[in-house]
Amino acid sequence: MLMRIGGKETMGIDETWIEVKNPATGELIDRVPAGTKEDVTNAVDAAETAFDGWAKKPTRDRGMILYHAAGKVRDQYKDLARHLTIEQGKPLKESMDEVRGFANILEFYAGISASQNGEAIRLGTAGDCIVVRQPLGVCGAIIPWNMPAIIMGWKIGPALLAGNTLVLKPASSTPLTNLRLGQILEEGGLPPGVLNIVTGSGESVGTAMVKHPGIRKLSFTGDRETGSRIRELAGASSKDITLELGGSDPMIVMADADIDKSVEGALRGRFYNAGQTCSAVKRLYIHEKIASVFTKKLRERVESLTVGNGLGSRIDIGPMNSAEQRDKISRRIEETRENRDGTILTGGHSLKGTVYEKGYFYRPTLVSGVLPGSGLVTDEIFGPVLPVMTVPDLDAAIREANNSRFGLGASVWTKDLSTAKRVFNEVKAGIIWVNRHLSVPPEVPFGGMNDSGMGRENGQHAPEWYSQTKTLYLGW
Ligand code: NAD
What band does 372 get if pLDDT is binned at 50, 70 and 90? Predict the structure, then answer.
C-alpha cells in the first residue's frame, strides 16, 4: 500500500520500501514506502491546507462526519479485522474487538460534539467574558504496533473533533490497518488532507515529525526510551507533547477474592494480545493463604491455552508481532534460567521445531520464586510471561506494587471495600481496577504516572488537550 497525503495515495520521495510480514508465517504480505523528512513536510503542508476548512466547520458537523465515517468502518469490520490479524498476529476475535473499538471511539467523540461549548464568565461591573476553544493546528500522532487501530482512534478522535488536522505515523510492522482506516474515513466523508498518513521508520519519519515546526502538538505512544528521546529532540520547541509509554501493572489478589474470577482476570489481563499490551498484568501478587490453590488453577488454565495462527478457529494466543520481540522474551527467560532468579512453572520456550516454525510464537509462561530486583519485575516485559509472587498481607502487596518506575495501571481482587479503597488511595498508577483489569473504554481518561508518561488520552476532556482557549472580554 502507499502512504496517504492530501487525500491521495503517494509513493514517497525516496522510492524505497519497508516490507510488512505476517508474524504467523513470516511471509511477505505487502510493502509500504519508507518515508523521509520531505514526505513529512509534504504531509504537514497538506494538513495546513486542509486546516482552515476543517477548523471552520461547526463542531457538530465534524462530529457528524466522524459518526458517518465510523459507520463505514463498522460495515467493513470483518475484513479489516482479518487484515489486522495478518499483519499484527492477534486472534481474529481480538482484531474484531479492536476494529469495533476504533469505531466506538469515533462515535463517542461524535456523541459529545454538541456539548463543546466553551464558557461564559460574569465579572459584575468589570464586564463579562466568553471563553471559546480553538484547535491548535496541525497535530502529529506516532503510534506503536501492538494496538494500531485502537491507538489511532485514541489520537484522531479528540484531535479531529477539536478541529485540528493530522499527520499520523504508523509503526513499521503494522502500517496496513492504519492506511486502510485512513482510506475508509475519507470514503466516509473526512475531507482530503485532514488526516495524512506517512509510513516509515522512527528514525526518519518519527524524528522529522518531532522536529517539524508546523506540528503544534505531538501525541506519542510507545516505548519509554523512545519517549525520552522524543522529549530531548523536542527540546526547547514550544510543541505540546503527550507521551503514553510503557507499564508494569501489578495485579493484587487478596485472600477473600473470588479465585476463579481472578484466575480468569489474570489470564486475560496478561495473555491478551500475546502479552503485548501496555496495561497488561505484568506482575502478580497473591496473598499467601490462597497462593498455592490459585497458582495451580492458573497454571492449568495457562496450559489449556491454544497458541497458533490468529486466523484459525479457537486460537487463544497468536504469534508475537516480530522475531525481534519473540527473541527479546526468549533471551529474558534464558537469563532467568541461567541466573536462577525464578522457576519456570510452565512454558518458557518458543514454538520452534513445530508447524509454527516460521512464525514468531512463544508459549505462555509462568515464573514463580522471582528474586527481588529481577528484570522480570523491574522492566516492562512485553510478551506472554507472568511472574507470580506471594505476599503475606496488603501492606506488602502495596509496597511491592509501588516498587516500580512505572505507574500505568493496577488492579486489586477482593470482596472487601476497605481493601479496594486502600489500593486506590495508595498505589501510584493512572487507573486502578477493582475485580477487573485491562478495560479501557473511550469514556474514561487513560494514561500513567512516573515513567509511564505524561498527559492522558480518552474521556470527555480529551478534545481540550487538542485545543487552546481564546477569551473575548466585554467591558460593555
Ligand atoms: P517504539 O517506541 O519502538 O515505537 C513506537 C513508535 O515510535 C513507532 O511508530 C516507531 O516507529 C516510532 N519511533 C521509534 N523511534 C522514534 C524516534 N526516535 N522518534 C520518533 N518516533 C520514533 O514502541 P513499540 O515497541 O512500537 O511499542 C511498544 C511500547 O508501547 C510498549 O512499551 C508499550 O507499553 C507502549 N504502549 C503504551 C501505551 C499507552 O497508552 N501508555 C499503549 C500501547 C503501547
Answer: confident
- Contact criterion met (CB below 8 Å) for 453 and 244: yes
Paired sense of beta strands 195-197 and 165-169, if any: parallel
Concatenating the DSSP letter of every residue in 153-179 gives HHHHHHHHHTT-EEEEE--TTSHHHHH
Q: Which three cell numbers stand for residue 44?
A: 504537514
| Residue 236 · residue 207 · CB < 8 Å | no
Give alpha helix (H) positions in 212-345: 224-234, 259-271, 291-303, 323-339
Q: What is the DSSP letter of 205?
A: I
Q: Is 142 in the pocket of ligand 1 (CB under 6 A)?
A: yes
| CB of 430 closer than 6 angstroms to any ligand 1 atom | no
Q: Which three cell numbers stand for residue 282?
A: 505484568
Q: What tens digit of pLDDT does each residue of 198-234 get?
A: 999 999 999 999 999 999 999 999 999 999 999 999 8
Query: With a 6 A CB cut-off, is 249 part of the ligand 1 pocket?
Result: no
- Taking the C-alpha atoms of residue 193 and residue 218, their distance in angstroms, rounded to an integer, is 17
Residue 243 CA to ligand 1 centre (angstroms):
10
Tell me the sheet residues that pair with 140: 167, 218
Long-range contacts (CB closer than 8 Å, 24 or more residues apart) made by 328-335: 328/382, 328/383, 329/362, 329/381, 329/382, 329/383, 329/384, 329/385, 330/362, 332/375, 332/376, 332/381, 332/385, 333/365, 333/367, 333/385, 335/375
**Which three cell numbers mark 46?**
497538506
Residue 435, classed as helix, strand or coil, is coil
Q: Residues near 33 by Cβ (< 8 Å), separated by ≥ 6?
A: 2, 3, 10, 11, 12, 14, 15, 16, 17, 18, 39, 199, 200
* Residues above pLDDT 70, as percent of the chain: 100
